[in-house]
Amino acid sequence: MIDNHPIMPPAEGTKPLDLMIAVMALLAGLALGASLIADRVATNWQSGLSGKLTVQILPPAQGTADDGLKLETEAALKVLRATPGIARARALSMREQASLVSPWLGQDDIAAELPLPQLIDADVVPGKSVDTAELKRRLKAVVPDALLDDHAGWMERLRDVTGGVIWSAYGILLLIAVATAAAVSFATKARLDAHRDMVELLHLMGAQSAFIARIFEWQYARAAALAAAAGTLAAALFFIAIGGMDSVGIEAVPFLPPLGLSPVDFMFFPAIPLSAGLIGLVTARLSVWSAVSKIY
Amino acid sequence: MNRGPACRYGLPMVRFENVGMRYGSGPEVLRDVNFVLEPGSFTFLTGLSGAGKTTLLKLIYLAEPPSRGLITLFEYDLAVAKRSDFPALRRRIGVVFQDFRLLDHLSVFDNVALPLKIAGSRTADFTEDVRELLGWVGLGDRLQAKPPTLSGGEQQRVAIARAVVARPDLLIADEPTGNVDPEIGTRILRLFNELNRFGTTVLIATHDRALVESTEADEMRLVEGRLVQLRKGRRPA
């Protein structure tokens, strides 16, 4: 039986190149996952605060604090519920308020002994806006100690911060993508250099540049894609493990929100090996054309 | 590309006019070389080592451009021919390289079949032809062997089979009998004669006087880069 052997020689001595591509793909996968998490966290922060108003009623300095605070809270709730555009207004219980300050004061009963202001949480009807200046004036009229916070200033700063986080993450992702592309391109050129004699021979035998490029480009594209797939898989496994820790209540990284990715997020990951394969293919083709053009 | 014109009887296959060649800024390796290879001719290119034989062959099989002068190949003036025409011109030339230039990872069969694959032929269409040719050069039982496992003489025969398998219009061989015993050398010469009889123009570079004297083919001699002697012999039978 005649062996219809492919013309391309088997890859030899390319393990370091494959390892380099795999490591760069791992970094690209981590950067991609981090970008997606940053984007999700920033969106959650913003959506968690948008459409909300908070009224803070400071406790009176003297007298029967509890009674006065309760009366003022009732009065403020009445004003809020009568305001057009407010869907719901609710005073937070002492337990809820204590839990809000627990990260700073701990789980003890210290909060109960402190003169904490009463917080009222109000939801704005989706799509409606509230005249906060008028609401502030009406609240002041019945509860002089009331402070209305529509989170506008905080939201503005949050938007700036999250925008910075997201763009930084995408910037890092872009840099790593460029470095990965350069690594794949370098590896492909190094492979081609090892086969320069073969390229020259095929050229002298009358092979068109496209014929020579076809011999190399698919094998190089496949090698780059497989190496990148290994690195990307490792990055994906990392995020699956982190997500698993979060889901069983283990905080993977203290003070940061859950770092797991959603199934939709993982759908972006195949782009890394596909891009690596494409870069390998294009680099091989351009390198062959360049090498052939120098031969005569 | 139309391969018709060069096959017309009487028009030169290769024409060199005042061709000079130097590598980089080095001395001229070839100087004012003028000759014509007629279609169907059989010519030896002789000369001592370093006389410029391999360089002259490289100019013909389009591995190097000349430093000066005009080369016409299959009626194409190479000075004005488009680069995109070169692959088709090269496919009309079979070359036996002095160092064989076999692909070590390919079997003997696949090395020989390479020009046919480059020309776009399907494996099924040439399998028998390649087998037959390899049988003819005495390698019928080594189809699947890899070049590194072959002797120098066997590698040379694979290189020769590869050069002739596509029945080129012009066959160029650089010292084709350098590594083979006299019996195989005679056999190779017979193969070249056979191809020549079917119309292939043959140019063999050699310093093997016995080989040159064994036929009455044309001879061109290179001495220090100049083509100084032309001997017209009779065509080989």
How would you explain this protein's 3D organization?
The complex is a heterodimer of chains A (296) and B (237). With 296 residues, chain A is of the alpha+beta class. Chain A has helices at residues 15-49, 65-81, 94-105, 110-113, 132-142, 152-194, 196-204, 209-247, 263-266, 271-295; strands at 52-57, 86-91, 118-124, 146-149. A four-stranded antiparallel beta sheet of chain A has the order 2-3-1-4, with helices on one face. In chain A, helix 1 packs antiparallel against helix 6 (152-194), helix 1 packs across helix 8 and helix 8 runs antiparallel to helix 10 (271-295). Chain A is elongated, with a radius of gyration of 31 Å. With 237 residues, chain B is of the alpha/beta class. Chain B has seven helices and ten strands. Chain B has helices at residues 53-60, 86-91, 108-118, 123-136, 152-164, 182-197, 209-213; strands at 14-22, 28-37, 42-46, 68-73, 76-77, 93-96, 170-174, 201-205, 218-223, 226-231. In chain B, the strands form two sheets. A six-stranded mixed beta sheet of chain B has the order 6-7-8-3-9-10, with helices on both faces. A four-stranded antiparallel beta sheet of chain B has the order 2-1-4-5, covered by helices on one side. In chain B, a hairpin with a 2-residue loop joins strand 9 (218-223) and strand 10 (226-231). Residues 1-8 of chain B have low confidence and may be disordered.
List keywords for this structure.
heterodimer, A: 296 residues, alpha+beta, Alpha-Beta Plaits, 2 domains, four-stranded antiparallel beta sheet, 10 helices, 67% helix, B: 237 residues, alpha/beta, six-stranded mixed beta sheet, 7 helices
